[in-house]
Specification:
Radius of gyration: 19 Å
Shape: globular
Strand content: 5-15%
Helix content: 40-55%
Length: 365
């Protein structure tokens, strides 16, 4: 099946009032798990990597301080791997850069073979955001690559993305922005929040989604709307982690509210935190059931070092080269990798069933 731009997938979702989950990965095995889960549902697969994830895939365990060169290595590795997987599946597959911070990093991903990229200029002044986004669009569209941009600021923290407070997107400004930049999709701020701690009283401003979509249709602009900071933070997983000795807290976006914005026009919903939580739960559970493996493990001491953390890249860092090259897989990793894959599948299957994208693979151009 084609390795295709996310534009094709999101256009279908918009026109049929469904949404697609887009799932962040930091290890090659996770990309494989996303595709396998989507094959089960016969739906398209959107695989995402953020810039810190590129640095991790490029071999730097201190991923938040990754260099452009390390990110280029990571981009080439993941693009080569996903393209190969796409050649051997019957579903459409898209590889997307999440939260590209500069033209140089976005260009590196396009040149490596990504077919979809995001340039996040939301922290810039409006005219600077327009200028940067337009520069990316001009380069990307010549190579058939879709571009996502962001307008408005989401509160919260995830990797290197941080804002203490949010600024809602103005629907009229969104129209102007898309007209001037020609971006293919736009991440808007309407009440979602990055990270696991979204608060107990999240209120999504569905009217912002509706007004933005109506204005786009009125102006005949062929663009789609994306929802960031939309993890559900399943409480059953949080409870399972804490029952195993963790001290995780947080609440996600209420599922009922998220399901309401899909027919209103949201076509892509980003999922990252939930995969981190499920991965942490699976590994805590494994070492609880196999206490004899704790002492010789390269993972266990880092896993339990900070009970409030669910950053799996930290406790897997001793195996970074093996995970990112699929070489020298030892006995411990042979047991750990299936747990990581199972965590991804749990979130992908739940999300895409909830977002009504089951069975759409044959209908996407």
């Amino acid at each position: 099946m084609p390795y295709i731009s996310s534009k094709n997938i999101l256009t279908y979702a918009r026109d049929h009032h469904i949404a697609h989950g887009a799932f962040n990965v930091n290890c090659l095995c996770q990309a494989k798990a996303i595709i396998e889960a989507c094959e089960e549902l016969r739906c398209a697969a959107i695989i995402q990597v953020a810039e810190p994830g590129l640095a991790f895939i490029g071999g730097n365990p201190d991923f938040l301080k990754g260099t452009l060169e390390e990110k280029k290595i990571g981009a080439k590795r993941i693009a080569k791997y996903v393209k190969k997987l796409a050649e051997n599946t019957f579903i459409p597959v898209s590889l997307h850069l999440d939260h590209g911070r500069s033209f140089e990093s976005v260009k590196a991903c396009i040149d490596a073979g990504f077919n979809s990229v995001m340039i996040d200029g939301s922290a810039l002044e409006y005219e600077e955001n327009v200028k940067l986004t337009k520069k990316v669009v001009n380069y990307a569209h010549k190579k058939g690559v879709a571009v996502e941009a962001e307008l408005g600021v989401l509160a919260g923290q995830e990797d290197h993305v941080f804002a203490a407070s949010s600024t809602y997107t103005n629907p009229l400004t969104a129209v102007d922005f898309i007209k001037r930049t020609r971006c293919d999709s736009l991440a808007i701020s309407y009440g979602t929040k990055h990270g696991a701690v979204k608060g107990d009283n999240v209120k999504l401003r569905k009217e912002i989604v509706i007004a933005t979509m109506e204005n786009l249709m009125h102006e005949k602009l062929d663009a789609t709307i994306v929802s960031h900071g939309s993890s559900l933070v399943p409480q059953y997983i949080v409870n399972e982690i804490n029952a195993l000795g963790g001290k995780v807290s947080g609440h996600g976006i209420p599922l009922e509210q998220l399901k309401e914005v899909i027919p209103a026009g949201v076509s892509k919903i980003n999922m990252d935190t939930d995969i981190r939580l499920a991965t942490t739960r699976n590994l805590l559970e494994y070492f609880d059931q196999h206490k004899e493996k704790r002492e010789t493990s390269k993972i266990y001491s880092l896993l339990v070092e900070n009970p409030a953390s669910f950053e799996y890249r930290y406790y897997l860092k001793n195996y970074i080269n093996e995970l990112e090259t699929n070489k020298n897989i030892n006995d411990e990793l042979k047991e750990i990798i299936p747990l990581m894959e199972r965590a991804v599948k749990e979130i992908v299957l739940t999300a895409n069933v909830t977002f009504n994208s089951v069975g759409d693979a044959p209908y996407i151009k």
